[in-house]
Design brief:
GO cellular component, one term: primosome complex
Catalytic activity: Couples ATP hydrolysis with the unwinding of duplex DNA by translocating in the 3'-5' direction; ATP + H2O = ADP + phosphate + H(+)
Number of strands: 33
Number of helices: 26
CATH class of the largest domain: Alpha Beta
Strand content: 15-25%
GO molecular function, one term: ATP binding
Keywords: ATP-binding, DNA replication, DNA-binding, Helicase, Hydrolase, Isomerase, Metal-binding, Nucleotide-binding, Primosome, Zinc
GO biological process, one term: DNA replication, synthesis of primer
Bound molecules: adenosine-5'-triphosphate, zinc ion
């Protein structure tokens, strides 16, 4: 806590601060600094202020000055929370840029940027950290009171605590409890990164002596033959490989866990638990850290470094399993050797724990990991360590662009085409890939975008020489890209060779793979059992009560679920409309694929990876571990399985139905389908043996499928680009969508028409709509979309955005706008 008692008398200047409040308000507010705080106030520190009637918030100081606000009387700051700024001035500039570019407020950016424990507000919830034992006698009175209250009532809001202590200044007490690890602040899902551990077995050194070993055998063979088998198996295995794990020993010897444990107790075996990496080409750690790049990788690396001399951004376009990660590692090494920091962005970090492990081997303690599955205490810890420059490499999902970097030399955006870099909701609706380009520029650092299937925007920038371009056209180790076979569902249906959703070709390939002790991934881009339940008599389908979507049946819960708002209801056994009992499930999701496969292949070990099976703590990790340990023969999953998985024994990939991707009503459908199909296919045969992909479709001659088979990205790009040009789409045009929402559809209609007309006054033909989006009601709000298209060349987007903002603000001052929500989305994805 700060001590103000000795503040020098002389500093009695009247100071004001501009603060950013963590709210969706359009501007910053000015507060007055009490004299005794004059010496402590600084940009980037948090202050507690009152906003509105009685709400307390932590705000960030964005400016200090002597000017009083003109239109209102400034309230006083209640307290200063930090001894040192926790946000750098450069970050504040970055927030400002994000707010301007993505047409939102700095408060919204602040909300996305700061871990919630750093932005306490009246409604923030506080709980005790149950995993931590502490000595209450060491607490001061106020800390004690709070912990006592939390014993009685497991959750308190900050307002509760204000009442409890009878004072407004509670934040420092909470901050102190938080730093002592005694409380959690608005705890969310927490999932600490855990390296995988395995038990390694070695033989006690005394049995290096042949006589001792022979003696041991004789005894064991008589008394415990299973144990003798285990020792034999150990000797055999240790001749073939450098290390022997307990799991391998059990599998090879047929001896049970009990026998091995008995041998450990007898000190014949020595067991040691060690963290292991997921690298299978060699489990020996030293060998890993001294890997060498192949010639093509080395050339690519040098090429990237050369291009950085003249380009700020370089695209590494490398086929799947070409070893882009290894090239990144060399680049990172070079940058941190100069003392600068590196940000390594990944689309969905939970899926890429093996990359974390790989990097940990090289960069040890200087690497930090940051993503939303971590709890707040952990996120604050990472924040501090980045601020202090302790972490040199940060591996993170999109929100890590907001960390307080000191000196960023390089940002790597892996799988740059991924849609998860874009935040849809809430604002800021930013794309971390694009924001990274601006961020790196602020630090005078470089950006490397990596992908096997680049986004068109990026590829366009590379082809027009705005970005550098480096290609890596072969898989590491000369492994061939998988063979792709397209199978017509229509033809097999006619020949009656389909078994539920599987063609005979796919079934045969899956069976062959299982026989060969290899693994299979089946992709179906829909979760749940069946997306539509329909009455065969009257065609009634149950819809969500809050949204304009049909409900998906989930067998696991036996209920109908809304995937947009989470609403659930029991699945009816008779049609609520006509009373018929002929209800039919239409379509199919991952749950059904898994279910039907288990009937067709009762002996295969199946698992499923989608949002439903990975919600709980560690569940995703467990699936990946099982895949790694070969406890899974077939993994069924949604697009989650397309993201960077690198497993050596996956040889067969099945796309259960390519049509739903290809038919998606969006101008990007072809680009997306190609990316998805090529990425999923890329999981097959990554080491040694060539993989096989089966694509099931009703439309085998579809152009995009041919392009996927031929791995002809260039052809896809040029054909699509012609169409984009014709229809004024990106990359030739920039899009801004404005969604307008209201609970009443008639009022919404009028609002949307009005707003569109106002926009047309400025932008004419560039304004399209309003139109109802694909799903025109979500959570009881009806939605209309207005689209604006701007020529990429010769448009000042800053001016256009300012005009749009003005028009929206003007609309919001009209009576008509009452009850509406207006949400601009810049570069929608
Ligand atoms: N120089 C190297 N030495 C040893 N192993 C390598 C080397 N380069 C790549 N590998 C191995 O090859 C496999 C594929 O590499 P990696 O996962 O980096 O490919 P990628 O290009 O990122 O693929 P994707 O785009 O599909 O994610 C990995 O298991 C990696 O460890
Ligand atoms: Zn709903």
């Amino acid at each position: 806590m700060l001590e103000f008692a000795q503040a020098p008398q002389s500093n009695r200047r009247t100071l004001f601060v501009d603060v950013i409040l963590p709210l969706a308000i359009s501007r910053n507010y000015t507060y007055r600094v009490p004299f005794e705080m004059n010496d402590h106030i600084a940009i980037g520190k948090r202050v507690v202020v009152q906003f509105g009637k009685s709400r307390l918030y932590t705000a960030i100081v964005a400016g200090v000055g002597e000017l009083a606000p003109e239109k209102y009387e400034a309230k006083y700051i209640i307290e200063i929370l930090d001894n040192k700024p926790i946000v750098t001035e450069r970050q504040l500039q970055f927030w400002h840029w994000v707010a301007e570019y993505y047409m939102c407020n700095e408060g919204e950016v602040m909300n996305a940027a700061l871990p919630s424990a750093l932005k306490l507000a009246s409604e923030t919830k506080v709980t005790l950290n149950k995993e931590y034992e502490f000595d209450k006698t060491l607490l001061n009175d106020k800390e004690f009171m709070i912990t006592e209250a939390l014993d009685l009532q497991p959750e308190l809001t900050i307002s509760d605590i204000v009442k409890l202590l009878g004072q407004k200044t509670v934040m420092p007490v909470l901050k102190s409890l938080f730093e002592k690890n005694i409380i959690h602040i608005s705890e969310e899902v927490s999932e600490r990164f855990k390296p995988r551990r395995k038990t390694f077995i070695t033989l006690h050194p005394s049995y290096n002596n042949q006589d001792n070993l022979r003696e041991l055998f004789e005894i064991l063979e008589r008394r415990a033959p299973k144990q003798a088998d285990a020792v034999l198996a150990f000797i055999k295995l240790s001749r073939q490989q450098k290390t022997v794990t307990k799991a391998e020993l059990i599998e090879d010897s047929g001896a049970g866990d009990g026998s091995i444990r008995a041998l450990i107790d007898k000190e014949v075996f020595i067991a040691e638990e060690r963290a292991i990496s997921r690298l299978r080409y060699d489990e020996d750690e030293e060998a890993i850290s001294t890997f060498t790049l192949s010639d093509v990788q080395q050339t690519a690396l040098e090429d990237i470094q050369n291009q950085f001399a003249s380009k700020d951004v370089v695209l590494l376009h490398g086929v799947t399993a070409s070893g882009k990660t290894q090239v990144y590692i060399r680049l990172i090494e070079a940058v941190i050797a100069t003392g600068k920091q590196v940000l390594y962005l990944l689309p969905e970090i939970a899926l890429t724990t093996h990359i974390i492990e790989r990097l940990r081997i090289y960069f040890g303690g200087s690497i930090g990991v940051y993503h939303s599955r971590f709890n707040d205490n952990e996120r604050v810890e990472v924040w501090q360590k980045v601020l202090q420059g302790e972490y040199k490499v940060i591996l993170g999902a999109r929100s890590s662009v907001f960390l307080p970097f000191q000196d960023l030399g390089l940002i790597i955006v892996d799988e740059e085409h991924e849609t998860s870099y874009k935040q849809y909701d809430p604002a800021p609706r930013y794309n971390a890939r694009d924001a990274a380009v601006y961020l790196a520029n602020m630090h005078k650092g470089k950006v490397l975008l990596g992908s096997a299937t680049p986004s068109f925007e990026t590829y366009y920038n590379a082809r027009t020489n705005k970005y550098g371009l480096v290609e890596l056209n072969e898989r590491y180790g000369g492994v061939q890209l998988p063979l792709i076979e397209v199978v017509s569902i229509a033809a097999e249906t006619k020949q009656k060779t389909m078994q539920s959703h599987f063609t005979s070709v796919l079934i045969a390939d899956v069976q062959q793979a299982i026989e060969n002790k290899e693994q299979v991934i089946l992709f179906q881009n829909r979760r749940g059992y069946a997306p539509v339940l329909m009455c065969r008599v009257c065609a009634y389908t149950p819809k969500c009560i809050n949204c304009d979507v049909s409900l998906t049946f989930h067998k696991h819960t036996g209920k109908l679920h809304c995937h947009y708002c989470g609403y659930k209801e029991d699945s009816p056994s008779i049609c609520p409309a006509c009373g018929s009992t002929h209800l039919e499930y239409k379509g199919f999701g991952t749950e059904k694929v898994e279910d039907e496969l288990s009937v067709l292949m009762p002996d295969a070990r199946l698992a499923r990876m989608d949002l439903d099976t990975t919600r709980s703590r560690n569940s995703l990790q467990n699936i990946l571990n099982d895949l790694e340990d070969k406890k899974i023969d077939v993994l069924v999953g949604t697009q989650m399985v397309a993201k960077g998985l690198d497993f050596a024994d996956v040889t067969v990939i099945g796309i259960i139905n390519a049509d739903s991707l290809l038919k998606y009503p969006d101008y990007r459908a072809n680009e997306r389908s190609f990316q998805m199909l090529a990425q999923v296919s890329g999981r097959a045969g990554r080491r040694g043996k060539q993989g096989k992909v089966v694509i099931q479709t009703y439309d085998p001659s579809h152009r995009v499928i041919r392009q996927v088979i031929e791995n002809d990205y260039a052809d896809l790009y040029s054909t699509e680009l012609e169409e984009r040009k014709g229809f004024n789409y990106p990359p030739f045009y920039r899009i801004i969508n404005i969604d307008i929402k209201h609970q009443n559809p008639e009022i919404l209609y009028n609002q949307a028409e009005y707003l569109a007309n106002e926009l047309r006054k400025h932008f004419g033909e560039r304004v399209i709509g309003p139109e109802a989006p694909l799903i025109n009601r979500i959570r009881n709000y009806y939605i209309k979309s207005i689209m604006l298209k701007f020529e990429r060349e010769n448009t000042s987007m800053a001016k256009a955005k300012a005009l749009i903002r003005e028009t929206i603000t003007q609309f919001q001052t009209t009576k008509l706008s009452k009850g509406s929500i207006v949400q601009p989305d810049v570069d929608p994805y």
